Amino acid sequence: MFCVTSDPQRRVADFLDANDLHAPPAYRLLDLASEVGELAADATNSTAYGSTPENLDVNRDELGDTLFCLYALAEELGVDAEAAVDESLAKYESRIDDSGDPGSGVPEK
Ligand SMILES: [Mg+2]
């Protein structure tokens, strides 16, 4: 039985516990890649391979699947997803402060 909480990683972890669904991180990473691929398929289909980007439409259910897999991966790796996002946002904010751009500074090809 999972608890009611607003912390999505905790909710996913409780679901994995309750349903005996823990898996090695490598499996979770492949599952995540598969779900991202499903989002890409939605994008491919809705935009005619990118030729009409204004028509982009991704399935909310697939976005949810992807988030589930991402939180499951974080859980299996022992990473606090919220802390990781906080670190990422701080990195981007620092880059914007330093250069005005959140990118890593890698030149475009
Ligand atoms: Mg899916």
TrEMBL record:
SUPFAM superfamilies: all-alpha NTP pyrophosphatases. CDD domains: NTP-PPase. InterPro entries: MazG-like_dom. Residues 31-95 form the NTP pyrophosphohydrolase MazG-like domain. It comes from the Archaea. This is NTP pyrophosphatase, house-cleaning of non-canonical NTPs. It comes from Halogeometricum limi. The lineage of its organism: Archaea, Methanobacteriati, Methanobacteriota, Stenosarchaea group, Halobacteria.
